[in-house]
Write a structure and sequence with these properties.
Helices cover about 40% and strands about 15% of the residues. The protein is of the alpha+beta class. It contains 6 helices and 4 strands. The relative contact order is 0.17.
Amino acid sequence: MRLNPGDAPDGLERRSSAPNIFGVFFESIFKSTVKEVGDVTLFTKIGCEKCEYVKKTVDLNKLGVKVEVLGPDNPDSLAHLAWHELVAVAETQLPILVLDDSSSITGAIRIKNYLATFGVQRPANG
């Protein structure tokens, strides 16, 4: 007896929805190394070297981090910063990372290290 692709031998059922073992394996690895950051905002400003450092060393897009650039032409970002009561902090310390529980982290190294725990960093030369 000759079987056509997709046919099952007599007495056996074909599992059409069998999981792709490799897909499941790689998906589990990806999910374990890239965690959800949540609703997180990074406040920066133009000309801020520490802000640029964070943006260059961490893949903010992959983590879903929203970047807001503070400046006179962006009143919505300033209003958002004020809503978090961080205007005085921003006058002396940028970048500021606001977490989904409204707590904040300042300092480029602390922000980079915090975001690194979620498993996504840019290569050292990228």
